[in-house]
Structure formats: C-alpha cells, structure tokens
Amino acid sequence: MTLEWEQVIVHAQDPVTLGQWWAEALGWVVVRSSGEEFEIRQEPDRLPGLEFVRLEESKKAKSRLHLDFRPDDQDAEVARLVAHGAQRVDIGQGEQSWVVLADPEGNEFCVLSRRRQ
User: Fold this and answer.
1) Pairing outcome for strands 99-102 and 108-111
2) Which residues pair with 102 in a beta bridge?
C-alpha cells in the first residue's frame, strides 16, 4: 500500500479570505477556489497543499494540529507576518526559541529559529 500526502485541511469561516491570506503569507499559488473551498500549493503540481474548507462555527480552543515554519531570519519573518495580519499568541509556551502566531481566524502556527548550520 502506498500513501501520498495530498494536503492539510484547515476549517475556516471564510475559506476564500483565509486561503488568500495564507497564499500571500507563503507566496504560494491558488490551484482551486469556490465559495466553500480554497486550495493553495507551493507550485501548481507540488504536494502537499493547504485546503481551506468552510465550517460555520468559530474556533473554540487551542489547535490540536499546527504548522511550523523555519525562516532564514526569524525576527524579519515574524515582523512581516504580523504586518500582514498575524497576531502573537500565548498558548502557554513560555520562553522558547520559536514564536507562536495566529492567522486572522485564530489558527496557531510557529515561526521557528533559524536552522543551525
């Protein structure tokens, strides 16, 4: 049996707006869009992707799954993402080498420190 990782599903009250926010934040391309679903990928034929699917209820608790990103310059990326509409959040992480942010619908993600050479 062979499995290929297709995408991560993100429930969103407004999948088009949230998906577009992530496409711009990551520099990814839109591969499919409707009022109910919005899919982005690094490149049109490259997997995995992120698919934003409408869910009417709002987020109620800390996300059980989140994305981690490793930038070349953590401070610059955090500043860029905050200027783009992300918010710093405290989920009880304490003092760590990563920064926890949330997208406009409150989904947490982490910006890690630069990978050591």
Assistant:
1) antiparallel
2) 87, 108
**Which residue intervals of the chain bear CATH 3.10.180.10?**
7-56, 65-117
Shortest CA distance to 71 belongs to which of 117, 112, 110?
Answer: 112
Q: pTM of this prediction?
A: 0.89
Instruction: Give me the tens of pLDDT residue by residue for the chain, a chain 117 residues long.
Output: 789 999 999 999 999 999 999 999 999 999 999 989 999 999 999 999 999 999 988 877 877 889 999 999 999 999 999 999 999 998 777 788 899 999 999 999 999 998 766
Residues 6+ apart with CB under 8 A from 12: 18, 19, 38, 52, 53, 54, 55, 105
Q: Which CATH architecture has domain 7-56?
A: Roll (3.10)
Q: Give the right CATH number for 65-117 from 3.10.180.10, 3.40.50.920, 1.10.1740.10, 3.20.20.150.
A: 3.10.180.10
